[in-house]
Amino acid sequence: QKFDKKITQDVFSVLSPIQSMKSKTSYGGTSPQGVKKSIQYAIKKYL
Questions:
Q1: Is residue 37 included in any domain, yes or no?
Q2: In a domain, 39, yes or no
Q3: Domain span holding position 19
């Protein structure tokens, strides 16, 4: 709110590091689902 009065507390929940990580849904992204899928692929391919 120091920069703009329209910035409210709810904005910070969207911009948190955890929420940012979860939102990366592209191939190779950091979402928990993407990481799980990559791990499963690596296990099948290399183990």
A1: yes
A2: yes
A3: 9-46
Query: Does 41 map to a domain?
Result: yes
Question: If we measure between CA atoms, which residue out of 44, 45, 47, 24 comes closest to residue 34?
Answer: 24
pTM beyond 0.70: the answer is no
- How many domains, the chain? 1
In whole angstroms, give the CA distance from residue 1 to residue 30: 29
**Residue found under tokens 């920069």:** 3
**Each residue's pLDDT tens digit, 1-47:** 677 888 888 887 778 888 888 888 888 888 899 999 999 999 999 99
